[in-house]
Amino acid sequence: MLLWCIWHNRNDKLWNDNVQMPRQIGRHALDAWNDWYSVHKLQRNNVSETTTTDLVRWEKPALDWVKCNVDVAFVSGSERTSVGLCFRDNGGHFMAGMTHWQQTVIALLLAMEEARHRGLDRVQFESGSKVLIEAIHMKRRGNSEFLSIVHDILNLMSTFINFEVKFVSRQANLVAHTLARTANSWAGFHRFENIPFCIEHLVFNEMQ
User: Fold this and answer.
1) Which residue has the higher pLDDT, 71 or 10?
2) Domain RNase H type-1 spans what residues (predicted)?
3) Residue 84: which of 171, 149, 181, 153 has the closest Cα?
4) How far apart are CA 66 and CA 55, in angstroms?
5) pTM for the structure as a whole
6) Choice between 35 and 164, residue whose per-residue pLDDT is larger
7) Which terminus of the chain has fewer Cβ atoms in its 10 Å neighbourhood, N or C?
8) Does residue 73 come out as left (phi exceeding 0), alpha (psi in the -120 to 50 range) or beta?
9) Domain 66-207: which CATH class?
10) Closest C-alpha among 125, 154, 139 to residue 38
């Protein structure tokens, strides 16, 4: 965990010119480890009430709902993490998409902010991060960077009561994952109002 925090600080210095003191890095590593331990301890004790059958294929949302799939990818050679997200209606039709160079944990918050920007208020968000989704369902609080983002997500969901979050497997999240992996084709933040070629066949297949 400490090595991950040192690596993260190195990338933050490289891409954002932001440097943290060694004591801050150590504190973040301890917070992250405590988060990890707490979540996995609850999983082992079967305390979590959020476990659902993992979807192996993407499913259309209910009538009048929108589904947003979110995923991240580490782009080989760039040492950066990219985010991909895709909004689809209840017919499975592409509505909008987005890619961004960003940290893993922020991806879902970014998707919710985008939904709010577009005036969408009945949205099912699907993510491949089980730890994040369980932390949201358990309404975990804390001082770490991870839990501060969970707190922001919970605040947003308290305003938009028809925002739902769910964990899905990679097979059911292929569109968002493909967008995340191809994010290096565009510089930084990029919105799509028309369906990108890289996911066209996947979207059409999942409409069937």
Assistant:
1) 71
2) 69-182
3) 181
4) 17
5) 0.73
6) 164
7) C
8) beta
9) alpha beta
10) 139
